[in-house]
Amino acid sequence: MNTARVNAYAKLNLTLDILGKREGYHELESAVVTVDLADRIVARKRRGGLCSASMHGEGCEILDPEKNQALIAAEKFVKRFGTEGADLTVWKNIPVGAGLGGSSADAAGVLNALASLYGVDDRAALKELADECGSDTGFLLEGGAAVIGGRGEKVHPIPSFPTIYALILCPRAGVSTAECYRKYDELGRAEPRRTPLFTEAISLGASYAGRFLGNALSSAAREIEPAVGEALSEAKSFSPLGASVTGSGSAVFALFETPELVSWAKSRYTGNCRAYAVKSVFPRR
Q1: Is 92 among the catalytic positions?
Q2: Is residue 157 a contact partner of residue 283, using CB atoms and an 8 Å limit?
Q3: Which burial class, exposed, middle or buried, applies to 187 when counting CB atoms under 10 A from its CB (0-12, 13-18, 19+)?
Q4: Can you give the pLDDT at residue 180?
Q5: pLDDT (tens digit, 9 = 90+) per residue, 256-273?
Q6: CATH number where 248 lies
Q7: CATH classification at residue 29
Q8: In the annotation, is 131 catalytic?
Q9: 11, 76, 92, 183: which is the annotated catalytic residue?
Q10: Could you list the residue range(s) of the whole structural domain that residue 7 is in?
Q11: 11 and 130 share a domain?
Q12: Residue 285 in domain
């Protein structure tokens, strides 16, 4: 096989709790799930151990190679496993700077594509590489539903997670993750811990868990970018099971009980955000 093709799925933070800080980093606890909004990654074998990345869509064509997580992941893979290199093509559909995990998804997708291309089945070693690439990458390597902790390296799958349906509203402006955490510290607002409540409720179904959605970074994201608050109000106007910000924003999402209700909400949305109807996806089940 000379070519591998994979989907790199976006994620939603159904909850995001900040438990404190350790060694300058925020300790997180978050219930996350992958959804069927995805970038498409094509990896082709290349002799000599060198890697290249061609990026398309969502304004990523001018991305600095030194900050390109897809390329960084490929170079880490080659160094770790001593394989030949790869030419990567990434077709982006996940909005940038939206809290949907796009760059981490690309890194995870590249690791999975190269593992397939070169016959690497050491998932533990791949997880170590993924954790080096970013806080969500270890989770996105496998996808599905999990509670992640620490800086994102601790991944505990949630068993028997039901299919969920959501409307994502993505403002045109993004939010810097680093700036959002700085603003969170500046605001100093204590937020209730939601993750344990959510994980207990989701075992009974999405209709029970919707009330426990929540994100400790929500206030900070809205302070930085007012469009986040506007999008959240718009999402709530459809009377969903619950609505929240994902990651550090700027995207928000509303949870619905059926795909028909998501389609109904999307068809009636008339705001300025890009709207996506999505459902949860479990790629490695």
Answers
A1: no
A2: no
A3: exposed
A4: 97
A5: 999 999 999 999 999 999
A6: 3.30.70.890
A7: 3.30.230.10
A8: no
A9: 11
A10: 3-157
A11: yes
A12: no
